[in-house]
Amino acid sequence: MADVRFLIVDDFSTMRRIVRNLLKELGHGDADEAEDGSVALHKLRNGKFDMVITDINMPNMNGFELLTQIKSDDKLKHIPVLMVTAEARKEDIIAAAQGGAAGYIVKPFTKATLEEKLTNIFRKMGWA
Amino acid sequence: MTDTASHAPKADGKGDIYQRLGEITRELHEALKALGYMPALKDAVGELPDARSRLEYIARLTGEAAEKVLNRVDEAKAEQQKVIDSSRQLVETIGAVPGLKWAMPELLQWSSEIQAAAERTDHHLTEIMMAQDFHDLTGQVIKKVVALAGTLEQQLLQLLIETAPSAGSESANTPAAPESARRPELSGPVVNPEGRSDVVTSQAQVDDLLASLGF
């Protein structure tokens, strides 16, 4: 499996830590964190990341705004974005998919769900 | 030619709605004064900051508790991994010595049981870690309630200012909504999904919805 560098974006440190630990358990130890969309965008523009896992409801810049920024930036738009969020409205799920999200996970979620979505994305990206 | 458009209600009916809302507000002011509810309203406004700080206290303490659990889980998982690795080595070592395997088959059985139990415990630890996501979910709800209490406090204060006998309502300008309030509203965790068709209640429903749309 490819060596993938993740950026985990969530305003709750607990959730960032949970996702980071899960990634480690799934064999992906290379990850950095950001507490909102604007910090994430800065890190993405100044570092090298292969994939973003982001919450939606965050201060300063939310996950939808981050997704839009990533997909409208020629240097970043190739990066798959997996939304992991408590937003359960159908219109939000559809908006994320139409905005170019590579996957959508509703909280609370399981390790198996994260593994399944990552496998799907890895396959699409040719990383598996 | 007479300009009738400026006097007629707006085509979308909003003019009527605003006029009616204005009337309701005035009636509410009068009713509050007449019924003597102003002191109670003042007390309610005074208690809102306390309610907010109590909620923030709950959010902070549950967050700290979740972090403590995660710290312990990290330590326990590291220890558990050592048990898993050692028991695996034990199983391999005993299995590789035929004399030992046949002379004391219990050794192999016990070692295998320790390895299996250690792996199950590691799985439980992962579940305990995952359960700490309650801090994120409840925290989001608390944040919304704190923001709601803030808005309520601001509006009640405005109402108090406007109904105060000495202060003129002309001088009381409604403060501008904070930037966050003007952003599109996100609903956060669904507290009561029963009877709602606009939300999903499981990951399977998310996957079905996306699949039905060809994603």
TrEMBL record, chain A:
GO biological process: phosphorelay signal transduction system
Gene3D superfamilies, per the entry: 3.40.50.2300
Domain Response regulatory residues, every copy: 5-122
Listed Pfam families: Response_reg
Classification via InterPro entries: CheY-like_superfamily, Sig_transdc_resp-reg_receiver, ST_Response_Regulator
PANTHER family: TWO-COMPONENT RESPONSE REGULATOR (PTHR43228), TWO-COMPONENT RESPONSE REGULATOR ARR22 (PTHR43228:SF1)
Listed name of the protein: Chemotaxis protein CheY
Natural source organism: Tepidimonas taiwanensis
